[in-house]
Target: DUF2007 domain-containing protein
Amino acid sequence: MKQLLRTNDPASIAFAKALLQGEGINCFEMDVNMSVLEGSIGIFPRRIMVADADYYDAARTLTDNGIEVDAGD
Model:
């Protein structure tokens, strides 16, 4: 799996996941349960991961819709 996006903005995460699901690209949100450790204040970023084979299509989908993709991950 490759990291596609890392952010602590829940709206960006929801938008990215909706875009990917609309394109039929499976994604996995990591670090969701970090809120237990941080007290739900949102300081730890969450990551959106996709399969290696889907990375370039997923990255293009997000960048075409104005979401900056983490380069090099």
The first helix runs from residue 10 to 22. The chain is about 35% helix and 20% strand. The beta strands are 2-7, 27-30, 46-50.
